[in-house]
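This section describes the prediction task in plain terms. A model, or a person checking by hand, is given the sequence of a single protein chain and must write out its three-dimensional structure as a string of tokens. No templates, partner chains or ligands are provided. The sample shown here is typical of the held-out split.
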Amino acid sequence: MSELDQLDGDIRSTGGMHLTATRALARVTFWLGLAGVATLIVAIVLTCADILWRRLVGGAFVDTFDITKLCLVAAASLSIPYGFTQGAHITVDIVADKFPKRLRHVIDIVISVISAALMAFLLWLSWQAAMLYYAYGDTTLNLQLPIIWYWAIFMTGLGLAVLAALARAIDAALCGQPEQSS
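The expected answer:
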């Protein structure tokens, strides 16, 4: 038996490539989730600093709205995929706990697939809207930031959310019940 055949057998027996891809996706979504939290902190600090500056000096920073809005888009878009990889989405425990474990497992797979489909649909709609903004060359009013930046961040998050939801469904189908975040 060649080394390639041995490797292929190892991958099949342990789900190696799938597990490696899932772990890589989990790492990517973790670090992007942290980046999302960091952008939220930037938005909070910037907003507080602008309020303080207005109270103390009487003026405002140059259009903090554009930067804050960009930070909030990044915070949400980059954090949502991490929620999918961790199974931290909202469940109704009062109802779900009444079902047998096997049925809950099937429901988790179905919900993950439906979530992936919804995120893919939103990605498709976002792509269409983003292309309009790109074609017109729209920018923000004061800082002249290209609006496509907002859409690019948003669509990146949606794309990762699709992958994360599908990975969760595949994990559940191949490897049994995925771990829930507590």
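For orientation: The chain has six helices and no strands.
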